[in-house]
Amino acid sequence: MKTDTETPGLVIPDNEDERVRFEGLTDEDLAQCVHCGLCLNACPTYRETGLEMESPRGRIYLAKAAKEERIPINDTFLKHIFLCLDCRACETACPSGVQYGKIIEAARGEAIRVRPGGLTARFVRWLVFKQVFPFPGRLRALAALLRFYQLAGLQALVRRSGVLRLFGQFGQAEALLPKLSRTFYAAPNTEVAPARGRTKHRVGFVTGCVMPYFFGDTNRATVSVLQRNGCEVVIPKQQRCCGALGVHAGARQTAQDLARRNIDAFEPYDLDVIISNAAGCGTALKEYGDLLENDPAYAERARAFAARVKDISEYLTEIEIDTKFGAIEKRVTYQDACHLAHGQRVRDQPRALLQAIPGLEFVEMKNSDHCCGSAGIYNIVQADMSQRVVAPKVVNIEATAADYVAVGNPGCMLQMDSALAAAGVATRSIHTMELLEQAYQAAEEEAKG
Amino acid sequence: MDTRKLVERLQSIVGAEHVVYRPEDLIVFERDASIDAQLPAAVVFPRTTAEVSRILAVASEMQVPVVPKGAGTGLSGGAVPEEDGILLSVSRMRDILEIDAENRTALVEPGVVNLDLSAEVEGLGLYYAPDPSSQKACTLGGNVAENSGGAHCLRYGCTINHILGLEVVFPGGEVAWLGGKAPDAPGYDLLSAVIGSEGTMGVVTKILVKLLPLPEAVETYLAIFDNVPDACEAVSAIIGNGIIPAALEIMDQVVTQAIEEAHHVGYPAGAGGVLIVEIDGMQEELDEQREAVLDLCRAARAREIRVAQSTAEREAIWAGRKGAIGALGRLAPNYYIQDCVVPRTKLPEIMRFVEDVAERYDIIIANVFHAGDGNLHPNLLFDVRDSDQVQRVIAAGEEIIRACIDAGGSLSGEHGIGTEKQEYMGWLYSDDDLEAMRKLKRAFDPDWLFNPTKVFPTGEGPHAAKIHIGKAPVHATAAAAWK
């Protein structure tokens, strides 16, 4: 164990062995699955492989069998459990209300607990989840380094050199590197962004751990849209990564510590609503109640926190917003981020917002709620499957001939932009809030005449 | 049986990555959506007809049992493996090979998902009519094997009414074409013999299906009754008046509550029986039928009738109905779904009997069924961990089957016999009847290798109904085969 000097008291366990078996998973959770199979064709990895082990029903059966000690937890088990994108499309398909996310995340936690995995995977997880994401300072330093890499022309040099091939799947990940925002998003030192005009609401904002660096514009747009609609936006400096990546990877203790940090950070402000603009974070934040259910000091507070979390698009359709948008003469399609559509059941709200923008020609793509293959760090650690999953997405986006594919999750933006560029398709991704902010700005321009 | 040798031979046909044999992988193949379970020796995933043919040749040579499998959504155990057998999955054979819009046919591979075909041809104004409730996951190959039905089979018929031709690989590896685009192929009607043969005669590798034009207009009503027998009465009255709706589906209170939790369709709390009526066809036809249907429902004491106002509302009603079986997972970890058919007019009487059985055996029975066809689906809910409950469920199920047969009905409407109902076949057929069927199977499968322990009674008697949901540690049993 060591503690973080930057965030005193944050526990970063050296290993996860100290936890109980299949933490967070009961026999009743597993019994909820009646093995009907209606989830099969909703699953991206089943559609690709046709293998029951790579399906939701199969993985639930594996988790159940492992928990009952019918099968050992070995490399084969790990392979199946970690090939899942955790996209939750099966939860939408499931008539029985199986909480698949809970099951797969507990199975991963167990897999990591008893079998920390191959050396490379372990190193990446250690580096990413233990050494980087939990520490805002380190993230900032890494982002600055990366910006230097891109701006100084090093990226072009490296890409030309072929050196990336030496790094195997991690070399492929380089292609996913987004262009860093020229200016990182910095929350105001006062921790409060005031409402424009009369203050009608007071909301918290989760900045996300990488968003400020890779998606500074998205965060600025989100806060601005809130301010324009009478929201005083509270952005606590003490907030940390939401822990989603940790939960998905089986690093539950780290995720739990981050969750406690965030609850501590937001609680003093007594906010009614806590806004997320990243679907993956939003789902994780909404599930803090599950994550900390066995922590007597935090269980109730976690449930209270989770109940206040809303995706930005969800929130904007619940309050009365200013609809004086300027025109955006663009053709726009919409990608349902898995953790919005399946994780949070938010589908109509972003579409309603986009369709309220004059001039914007909204066109649906086929299978908009199929995963793009981004899935946190999946596109790095499971690069081959990720490429297979994104291929039909590119075809469906291209068929819309849209200028933009709007989406509510940063990871999807990286993944789709990289795949679209590689396929020579001109469509680019954009966060729904950036389009909304552009529409407000267009209205201001029009008013100036 | 030499498992290692079998695996090596299969690998040499389809490639090492397309054979599953590790015990910890095999475990997920031990079940379909029924209540039986058995580990296979290996699962093989061929891509082509030629590969299927070579696999079947090896199976014959090594005298290994074969079970073909689609998506594994079947409810009677048809895709449950045989001990030491090959499970042949068609999940990699999933191309739509040809769509002939003018002749309204499609040639598909057996792994194509039922609903995917309809989605593919929707733009042409066409669809594939048979719609099992599992249609978003089940395969057309599985549909052919089970002669699957669905909610809309009342008006449009089951799978058998929509298949024009099949490519079948018979035991030993012979590849034959049955039927074709032209109507009335001369010679024996082998198409009808293979459809619904539950994987006991061979493996289907190509399917030529009929496509239908999408109806000009569709209307869907939700009629709410105080009890199921009243809803049944409405069904008999509608059909008795010469109206054949596209679908007539009844659900009882247990089911509607479970669905409501899942889908928020808007089924009213406390409704004893809900009837879905869908009529489709030309607009003029619907205008004539609408009032008659609504009047007949009212005459059968419908408490309330809702008319779906939009496509979204209609889809919500159907999403609820088609997710009904799965939604039962909200009530109990396991279900035993039956599939008896009775003459439609006997429905109210049988439904009262089912209610009585539930009470006597102290189990929950959830009813959701194709009322227009007289096709019951009592779902006997249980928890496999409670062995006493399991015994009561088996006994209660038998009473229901017996009553349906005594009422002039049959064992199965659309789910197939499999392992679930095989011991009851003797209640429906004489020894000679069954022997005639066995002779047909032997003609194609002389070594009796295809789904060998299913469909026909084993002679162990009715009480041998199988509820075998796996419990044995797989790394001990299956790994033993590798020693």
List keywords for this structure.
heterodimer, A: 449 residues, alpha/beta, Fumarate Reductase Iron-sulfur Protein, Chain B, domain 2, Rossmann fold, 3 domains, five-stranded mixed β-sheet, four-stranded parallel β-sheet, 24 helices, 11 strands, 8% strand, globular, disordered N terminus, B: 483 residues, alpha+beta, Uridine Diphospho-n-acetylenolpyruvylglucosamine Reductase, domain 2, Uridine Diphospho-n-acetylenolpyruvylglucosamine Reductase, domain 3, Vanillyl-alcohol Oxidase, Chain A, domain 3, seven-stranded antiparallel β-sheet, five-stranded antiparallel β-sheet, 18 strands, 35% helix, disordered C terminus
Brief characterization of the structure:
The complex is a heterodimer of chains A (449) and B (483). Chain A is α/β, with parallel strands linked by helices.
Judged by helices, strands and strand pairing, the structural class of chain A is: alpha/beta
The tally of domains of chain A stands at 3
Please estimate the helix content of chain B: 25-40%
Largest interface: A-B, 36 and 49 residues
Quaternary class: heterodimer
CATH H-level superfamily of the largest domain in chain B? FAD-linked oxidases, C-terminal domain
Helical content of chain A stands at 40-55%
Q: What would the principal axes of the Cα set say about the shape of chain B?
A: globular
Overall CATH architecture of the largest domain in chain B? 3-Layer(aba) Sandwich
Radius of gyration of chain A: 21 Å
Q: Over the alpha carbons, how many angstroms does the gyration radius of chain B reach?
A: 22 Å
Q: Give the neighbour order of strands across the main sheet of chain B.
A: 15-12-14-13-17-18-16
Largest sheet of chain B: 7 strands, antiparallel
How many structural domains are formed by the residues of chain B? 3
CATH level 3 topology of the largest domain in chain B: Vanillyl-alcohol Oxidase, Chain A, domain 3
